[in-house]
Amino acid sequence: MPRSREPVLAQVLSVAQMRDAEQTLIDGGISVDELMQRAGRGAGEWVRRIAAGRMATVLCGPGNNGGDGWVIAEFLREHGNPVRVIAARDPATDAARTARGLYRGDVVAADPSLCGGVLVDCLFGSGLTRALPDDLLTLLTGVAARHHQCIAIDVLSGVESDSGRALNAGLPCFALTVALGAWKHAHFAMPACAAMGAVRLVDIGVAAVQGAARVLARPVVRAPDADAHKYRRGLLGIISGDMPGATLLAATAAQRAGAGYVKLAAGAVPAGTPPELVVSGDIVGLADDARVAALLVGPGLGRSDDAARLLSRVMAAGRPAVVDADALVLLRPAMLTGAPVVLTPHEGEMVALERSFALSGAGLRRDRALALAAKTGAVVVLKGPDSVIAAPEGTLILAPRASSWLSVAGTGDVLAGTIASRLAVHGNALQAAEEGLWLHAEAARLCGAAFTAGELAHAVQAAFRAVCV
């Protein structure tokens, strides 16, 4: 076990991986009952803080998630917090029965009209793969509507853990979800993640799992060396096209994400170009310039035959590149040279890429991103409310849900510019994708509500400042 648990606690496990990880602990001498106590008492502390003396209603199902609920309820009772349990089903596992036997508090009838301060949902955990029966759905939605706050334990009942798919319509939303042992895919996948509220993790001692996905982490960026100059810090070339506004947004973000020099290649100087942005009319010459550390192509490029020829010529230069927007629709397998590349599609562009690279498009978003990364040799940032990063060797990184105010025109150009700036600094495509996606989300958080893409691009600087050491 590493000295720090932080890398282990960043992993995201499937149901099968979590089951195996728990079995490893059991094989090592830790009983199921002890694991349940660790999970339930850890979650109980979060519930106790939220309840703050208000009546807590714990809704227990038949399995081990219900067992966790019995442990939570006893923890609350021991700490003087009013608590009652609704036993929606009798305990059906040995560990759940043991936990039920240790509870010394009140058990009440399964009444959907029951009111209270905090509802704790322990009906079903991460293993659920079928819809809740009608009586349990009515019970869950009824009591959830009549409590001031709702807390889910591990995952929401009625959600498929591996996909984030809602197995029932009309599931309630929660203020807090407490994951047990490890993050699950549903904590980061739509539509489930939108209903989970804040998410917290209880460590029960699970070890690192080989091949597991991980959560996007806050980056650490070091200041330039004392003898740095603009070329050593990274020259980013941005290729303009039919709609220069998009490239200006990308350039604005790129200038604030650490690159030493941002140069725009355009046929004419776009209106509104800031004085610190250098504009070159020699588009091909910029792509061939040996001093260029990375290129960004796609924002505002257009989809004409001329744009396709320009993209082919730019990619032939063999420079590290971020390919975004229109360039994703025009990209073909022959254009990839083996240089580090980051592809940044949204769903529609992803479909176009899958068509161009003869991929089926079947499976979950993370599976599709991994398939495209493997086929192209590029790092793929599949954008959306549940963005994922996939690398060719199989690395998968899941981003926490960012501000929904990002759903405004131009924010994708800002993301592309931010990633490209980081790529120009160090040339590592996966690292650039991680840094850029985190900075983009943090800039949105700093902007608050109802911002423009231009305001987001300027906020990249404040986000960047927060991670510099």
Largest sheet: 12 strands, mixed
User: Regions with pLDDT < 50 over 5+ consecutive residues?
Assistant: none
CATH topology of the largest domain: UDP-N-acetylmuramoyl-L-alanine:D-glutamate ligase
Name the beta content range: 15-25%
How many alpha or pi helices? 15
Overall pLDDT confidence = 95
What fraction, in percent, of the residue positions are helical? 25-40%
N- and C-termini, Cα separation: 28 Å
Strand order of the largest sheet: 8-1-10-19-18-17-16-15-14-11-12-13
Q: What is the annotated CATH architecture of the largest domain?
A: 3-Layer(aba) Sandwich
Q: Which structural class fits the helix and strand makeup?
A: alpha/beta
CATH class of the largest domain: Alpha Beta
* Number of DSSP E strands: 19
User: What global shape is seen?
Assistant: elongated
The CATH superfamily of the largest domain is Ribokinase
Q: What count of structural domains?
A: 2
Based on CA atoms alone, the radius of gyration comes out at: 25 Å
Provide key terms for this protein.
2 domains; elongated; Rossmann fold; UDP-N-acetylmuramoyl-L-alanine:D-glutamate ligase; alpha/beta; 19 strands; 469 residues; 15 helices
Protein architecture, described:
The protein is an alpha/beta fold and 469 residues long. The relative contact order is 0.10. The two termini are 28 Å apart. The strands form two sheets. It has a twelve-stranded mixed beta sheet, sandwiched between helices. Strands 4-3-2-5-6-7-9 form a seven-stranded parallel beta sheet, with helices on both faces. The chain has two domains: 7-208, YjeF N-terminal domain (Rossmann fold, 3-Layer(aba) Sandwich), CATH 3.40.50; 235-467, UDP-N-acetylmuramoyl-L-alanine:D-glutamate ligase. Helix 4 (64-78) packs parallel to helix 5 (94-102). Helix 6 links the parallel strand 5 and strand 6 (147-153). The protein has 15 helices and 19 strands. The model has no long low-confidence stretch (mean pLDDT 95).
